[in-house]
Design a protein that fits this description.
With 236 residues, the protein is mainly beta. It is built from one helix and twelve strands, in the order E-E-E-E-E-E-E-E-E-E-E-E-H. It has one domain (32-47, 79-234). Helix content is 4%, strand content 57%.
Length: 236
């Protein structure tokens, strides 16, 4: 922040420090309200943060070594927002789970100018089903997750706005038991409909490189039962 003057490989930008920066001082107030019953949970968590001499990276119109130049600067600023969510598993459909959440962050300086690099507002919704069995396959779960990211138009000078995007993810997991050994299988598909999008905080957005498209993941987890392994070793 003080002495930078070069390419930051991890962020894909050229950063220039500021030796005149002062120490930050932060004052924050936050609250949390939650509710929980047998079939419904919910929460709301707002916050407000006033920061004197807030240090941040300010984008500019400069280009060095084909990379955008960001300058470290500071100003008195306010960061505020919150998160709210719920989890519903209605009776008698105890195997069904409905979850949702909303989160936002806003940031302005004392002149009410928008701060750079503030994430977009997001709405997450998940529908899942979990089934327990007494056979070889002990537990099966499946889910469908949606993340809707609102357009981010509250941007600083020389920072570009980001359009809204809508992502769907799905997955299947099951627990198998063979000869008293548990095997956990998990298959997921992220960005199911191959949405073409930028995340507002993507480090490659300025190069025109989109976020990851449709991708598949497979995972096998074998929990080791050490007592059983040691017992088998001692039997030799």
């Amino acid at each position: 922040e003080l002495l930078s003057d070069g390419i930051h490989e991890g962020t894909n930008r050229y950063e220039i420090g500021n030796a005149q920066l002062k120490t930050e001082n932060s004052y924050q107030i936050d609250a949390s309200l939650s509710y929980k019953s047998k079939h419904l949970e919910g929460f709301v968590s707002p916050y407000f943060n006033y920061i004197r001499n807030y240090i941040y990276l300010q984008p500019s119109s400069e280009i060095i070594d084909e990379l955008p130049v960001y300058h470290y600067t500071q100003a008195d600023a306010c960061l505020y927002g919150g998160e709210a969510g719920f989890h519903l598993h209605p009776h008698p459909l105890d195997w069904l789970h409905l979850e949702g959440s909303y989160s936002n962050t806003f940031g302005t300086d004392k002149k009410h100018n928008d701060l750079p690099l503030i994430p977009s507002q997001k709405i997450n919704t998940t529908v899942s089903a979990v089934f327990s069995r007494k056979k070889a396959i002990k537990k099966i779960s499946i889910y469908l997750h949606n993340q809707y990211s609102l357009a981010q138009n509250c941007v600083a000078g020389y920072e570009t706005a980001t359009p809204a995007y809508d992502l769907f993810n799905t997955g299947l997991a099951f627990e198998l038991e063979l000869n008293k050994q548990k095997l956990l299988f998990n298959v997921t598909v992220n960005n199911l409909f191959n949405e073409v999008y930028y995340d507002h905080l993507s480090r490659y957005k300025t190069d025109g490189i989109y976020n990851m498209g449709r991708n598949f993941n497979f995972r096998l987890n074998i929990p080791l039962q050490w007592d059983r392994l040691l017992s088998n070793l001692n039997s030799f």
